[in-house]
Amino acid sequence: xxxxxxxxxxxxxxxxxxxxxxxxxxxxxxxxxxxxxxxxxxxxxxxxxxxxxxxxxxxxxxxxxxxxxxxxxxxxxxxxxxxxxxxxxxxxxxxxxxxxxxxxxxxxxxxxxxxxxxxxxxxxxxxxxxxxxxxxxxxxxxxxxxxxxxxxxxxxxxxxxxxxxxxxxxxxxxxxxxxxxxxxxxxxxxxxxxxxxxxxxxxxxxxxxxxxxxxxxxxxxxxxxxxxxxxxxxxxxxxxxxxxxxxxxxxxxxxxxxxxxxxxxxxxxxxxxxxxxxxxxxxxxxxxxxxxxxx
RNA sequence: CCAAGAACUCAAUGGC
Length: 295
Description:
- By secondary structure, the protein is mostly helical.
- The chain is 74% helix and 0% strand.
- α10 (156-168) runs parallel beside α12 (191-203).
- It is globular, with a radius of gyration of 23 Å.
- The relative contact order is 0.05.
């Protein structure tokens, strides 16, 4: 913001790119009001918002769960003769999926088709994930098949969404099945795929398997992320093996990762579960010292 | 003056 003021003072005029970046910044901090202010500002300065500007705002509304605002904005776009593109529609579809309005996505798909736009891989992945979250595995798998039929082969994102769904449904065998299908198609699990599996097996108490995935990930040359560690830590905590969890906390720091709020609260919660309240407070202290505030 | 680069969408983790 201060840089912006500075630039205004120096009469440096911003272009659409810089405005878009600014707007995105405010959106990321849930400052929609500020973001919209810049939308006005840019127009006053004779800089016209483009599709990307609107896509950014649309996505922000969707992520905040304000799908109605997003749909309104979509209307505004057409009154301004700004043509929505595929990303616009993908963004809105994802917003609808997040809110569980799967039936509404069909309207958007029709509108897309009326405008001569075909769903791409992101559209499909968004829908596959949406149906998975709704518990409609059937439709998710149907779309997966349709992707292949239409020559838009599923990618690792598609499969990770499906694997996650199987894991969360408690069907680990099925999850591994999907993983096998993926590899048959020449796709290799990435960091997120492994994390999904680690989380799935951890939650069912199969820590040995979870740890194997963890090792496999490293063998594949992938660096386990904070999320991967967190998933495994959670698994050990669920079994009351807080010592194991604490070891992993050390490991991640050794690996140069910065444990986050989730890491600490998972272990603190675990310590509370085993009645080690003083250790829990102690860890909370350590966390605060590291500059992470409890929420 | 020319060229290059820079902005938007999909999958994973704890508690409440």
